[in-house]
Amino acid sequence: MVPPTDLDDFSPGDLKRLVLKLFEEVAELRRTVAAQRDEIIRLKGGPGRPNIKPSGMDKATEPKAPSAGGEPRRKGSKTSKLSIHEERTVKVATPPQGSRFKGYTNFVVQDLVIRPQVVNFRCERWQTPDGATMTAPLPAGINGHFGPELRRFVLAQYHQGQVTMPRLLTLLRAFGIIISKRQLVRLLIADQDGFLDEARDVLRAGLISAAWITVDDTGARHKAVNGFCTQVGNAQFAWFGTTQSKSRGNFLELLRAGHCDYVINAEALAYMRHRALAGPVITRLAEHPDRFFADRAAWTAHLDRLGILALTVNPDPVTVATEGALWGSVKAHGFLPNTVIPAFAGTSDDAGQFNVGQHGLCWVHAERLVHKLDTFTDEQREAQRKIRALIWRFYRDLKAYRQHPISRRKAALRARFDRIFTRKTGFVTLDRLLARLHANKRELLLVLDRPEIPLHTNGSENDIRCQVTKRKVSAGTRSDPGRDCRDAFLALSKTCAKLGIAFWDYLGSRLQVPNQPDVPALPQIIKHRCATA
Length: 533
Hints:
By secondary structure, this protein is mainly α. The protein has 20 helices and nine strands. Among the domains are: 7-43; 193-336 and 479-532, no CATH class; 363-448, no CATH class. The chain has helices spanning 12-43, 57-60, 148-160, 165-174, 181-189, 193-209, 248-255, 266-274, 279-287, 296-305, 317-332, 363-371, 378-403, 408-421, 428-438, 441-444, 458-474, 480-499, 503-510, 522-532, and strands at residues 125-127, 133-135, 214-222, 225-233, 238-243, 262-263, 292-293, 340-343, 358-361. Helix 6 runs parallel beside helix 20 (522-532). It is globular. The protein starts with 11 loop residues before the first helix and ends with a helix.
């Protein structure tokens, strides 16, 4: 959006969108400047950014395992877990005269065989009575002139192993594979619709059946433009989506899991009321007979017919109505039926883009604000230490409550929360922080009513590290298929790890590598695991 010569020509809605875009650009510039400053300091031999250690609250509040007395635990047999592929007999060259044969002793060795295998398929050709030519089809799994085993190796190395394309190309050529960079790119992103569909269905299965999901986002570059990668997942699945925005509307679009429709239903109207959309606007949308819109163009045309596009009020009716219609689509497809979405706690807007549906907040992020607070006097440091100790003990008791929820403890924990976060320490900055956290009481104590939800978003932070690593080693993506394949394969790899499935076996099953174990559809496994969790 290019501002006009006179900003007075902008409507309030246009100004708001411009300010939001500028905020995103300023945030990205700050990250760039910070990285450049750290690099300059490092090159000059300076100390660089201060190393603030993690608070350790979550790990320190875990119950200690009982010490095992007596003898140390013996290791299990590794050989029993192996399948023997070959047996070789090794003989003594010349045993001393008079020696007696005493049988054999086994020594198991694991090895890896990597070599190129070139197969010339001689496909039969027949001419039918009507003059047509019939050729025998190639075996399943062959893509161009490359077999399924090679395709599996390429996908596993690039996505799970995080090997860059130039290094992977060098590695393949060192093995004796004659392949060009263009052919390698095709193996990575061409004809991957089956994997893309399964990754999408993984998200849909999780959104339908999971009791809770956690979310996170990180920077991502696509077509030389800064964007954001959003993670959605829980203990059973992970999914990634890269877009150019991190707004609430963008998050709601991702929660549609591939659907493109906009729906006006009871949930959409309730969302609009909650976001303080003007009553007359809600009435226009509620009373109109059209409730379903196939895509954004149809929805925008509907808003124009109702005269909503021309409104210049605050909050922006187009933004709120669109978010409501997106939320209506999410609910219409059966997603997030009673799902809690824990997100960050403590940023300026408490990660407002994720604040939809039943919303919880992360205790680790909340405590981190107290931990990272700058102190300048002994009194301030002592006040900070006492508050952190109180929060740690309270967090430990919340974890105990999750394991054994007792209804009579709810009132006591809520009253204790109030006592901690309404304290006046005399440290003004700390007191303001405590008051802000106290305002988030409902989200921070949601676990009292839903003990199955986690108290933190550590799972999302761990999941999204693979995207951060990919960004560091491979920069950004250059095409939409490349972006979609990167997100999909990293999601499938993470999901396989959570379900206890070897990604190598998963790829072998999907690429129809001969003599490989069959791996059921991941969405089916996720639904079963979530139902029995």
